Amino acid sequence: MPQAAGGDPEIAQVATAFADPRRVRVLMALADGRALPAGRLAEEAGVAASTVSNHLAILLGHGLVTAQQQGRYRYYRLANGDVEGVLEALARLAPRTPVTSLRAHTRAAALRTARTCYRHLAGELGVKLFGGMLERAWVVGGDGTHRRDDPVDRLSAPGHKDLYRLTDAGDEALAEWGVDRSLLRDDVSLRYCVDWTEQAHHLAGPLGTAVTDRLFELCYIARGTVPRSVVLTPRGKDRLAWLHP
Q1: Fewer CB in 10 Å around end: N or C, the chain?
Q2: Nearest C-alpha neighbor of 117 from the set 89, 142, 76, 139
Q3: Nearest residue to 66 via CA among 90, 24, 34, 44
Q4: Are 189 and 164 a contacting pair, CB within 8 Å?
Q5: CA nearest 127: which of 100, 150, 146?
């Protein structure tokens, strides 16, 4: 999200783009990293194609999405990872809406079961993944529990207060998966997020992204039909029995 050099950031100005529920639905539909055409985004937002064009123009104007022409269609995607980070932070802070339809129930259940969060695995599956790593001593430094009375362990932000560390056993296990651990560089502490549906920690940061990318490559997980949702494939259920939600 662009901001002028010097001076304070105009938070209120960009925040107006998030103030309309239809624009939020557009952004959430794009939050799994894919590029989608306006017609698909209109369906997700529940508006006509002409109306979604106006909302997309606002999002483009605020630098929240980018557009690329491919053939007859114009495809939109989030401008950068910061936008998804804002969405995830707002989701942790926002009150839950009542589920009043089968479609809403299906979407809520899919996102709670497994979803992407800033390109790493979240939801029940993400929490189980991190919990399994802790149980197997692949990662040490905490127990994966969110402590509501700890001002550092906040729902609205990622953290590394527990100084989670990847052990030699974890490094070997991830090497067997083919995970690119070079992304860790020399940072000894691992990042985590407080999962907004499970109220527990899931793996975040470079390692969280690398693990999730590799699970997709191995076809252990796949994109679900609900935007941002993830499903454990039959291959994944066979190879990662301890991840079953």
Answers
A1: C
A2: 89
A3: 34
A4: yes
A5: 146
The first and second tokens of residue 16, run together, are 């107006």
Instruction: Tell me if residue 86 falls in helix, strand or coil.
Output: helix
Answer yes or no: are the C-beta atoms of 204 and 187 closer than 8 Å.
no
Question: pLDDT, tens digit, for every residue of 200-227?
Answer: 899 988 889 899 999 999 999 999 988 7
Residue 166 and residue 164: Cα distance in Å, rounded? 7
d(CA 96, CA 18): 16
Tokens of 123: 């939801």
Please, are residues 236 and 219 in contact by the beta-carbon 8 Å criterion? yes
Secondary structure (3-state) at 191: coil
Helix axes 123-135, 102-113, angle to 10 degrees: 20
pLDDT of residue 156: 42
Q: What stretches in the chain show pLDDT beneath 70?
A: 1-6, 99-102, 104-105, 147-162, 183-189, 244-245
Contact 232, 219 (CB under 8 A): no
pLDDT at 160: 52
Which residue in 200, 183, 204 sits closest to 192, CA to CA? 204
Q: Which of 191, 196, 194, 229 is nearest to 211 (CA)?
A: 191
Which domains are present in the chain? 11-94 (1.10.10.10), 111-243 (no CATH)
Q: What kind and span of H or E run contains 232?
A: strand 230-232
Give the other-Cβ count within 10 Å of 139's Cβ: 24
